[in-house]
Amino acid sequence: MNANYMNILTPKFGCIATGYGQSASYMFPRHDVVDNVLLAQASCIIAPPAIVLQSEEGNPVGNLTSYSGYCVGNFWFKTNGRNTYLVDGDGRVTGGPDERAALGMPLTVPMDEPPPAPNVTLVAPNGGENWFVGSTYTISWTALDSASIDSFAIDFSTNMGIEWLAAQPKTHGNPQSYRWTVPDNPSPDCIVRIRVWNTADVVGSDVSDSSFAISAPPVCRYYIGDLNGDSAVTAADVSYGVRYFKGFGTPPVDSCYLDSTKAYLYVSGDINGNCDFRGSDISRLVGYLKGFSTLRHCHFFPPTPPPLRRYYR
């Protein structure tokens, strides 16, 4: 046996018959075969070590003989031809110890090694985020496998993994992202777990590196049309908005965080309800003050205070 055969075949067992009658001068096994090759101690061997079975202890004593194998007497392999095979020996050893117990015989061995688990990495949330109840966020991950990815499942925990709740039950496919509407489970100690299965039904998983928070959504209180924050809608608000758009005024004072854009929306100045603040809102505000337009709020942020008085010029 040489290094190439060992690396190509990657045997699970190495079987050596030794004892009287195997050689006229000395009895095997040889150190260079057992230790260097079968037990993968030589640097040129990249295969994993095999389990060496031998019928007798090696002889004669010396540096050519290996004593690293298991002496088990006569040994055999049996299989049902489907999933596993049985390895056992009778312990009829005359020149050395019976090492069946040390090996754990009889051994039940899978006929094929299971494929490795998929390599999966959770991208988000991965720690430090603050996600609001009722808002929708993207859970994302990467998943690679030598076989095809067959399915995935997403769980979340509000107590750092002590208990898990399903965000998405096991589902066919590998989209590598999932839009999740955050449930009403506020906690500062949340993590997400992603699991993926390959076509051999071997699962790989990953969890958030550190905790993120699930929080109640912030309360957004404002007066629609009250650009300057004086609790009234007047011509002064028109002047305030004009100055802002000309570049020498400050933004409206009441703002609400729009999670989808990760930015604050000037909701008090969004008069036409398109969830943006622009010059057309000032025109509509003038129409409102003249009595022929209405104020429309952004649908994300219904105004919470009571209606304001309207002042006509």
Give a description of the structure.
The chain has 313 residues and is of the alpha+beta class. It has three domains: 3-110, no CATH class; 119-215, Sandwich (Immunoglobulin-like), CATH 2.60.40.10; 218-313, no CATH class. It has five helices and 17 strands. The protein has helices spanning 3-9, 31-38, 100-103, 235-245, 279-290; strands at residues 13-16, 51-54, 70-71, 75-79, 84-89, 107-110, 119-124, 130-132, 136-144, 149-157, 165-172, 177-181, 187-198, 203-207, 212-215, 256-258, 263-265. Strands 8, 10, 11, 13, 14 and 15 form a six-stranded mixed beta sheet that branches. Strands 1-2-3 form a three-stranded parallel beta sheet. A three-stranded antiparallel beta sheet has the order 4-5-6, with no helix packed on it. A hairpin with a 7-residue loop joins β10 (149-157) and β11. α4 runs antiparallel to α5. The radius of gyration is 37 Å and the shape is rod-shaped. The model is unreliable at 306-313 (pLDDT under 50).
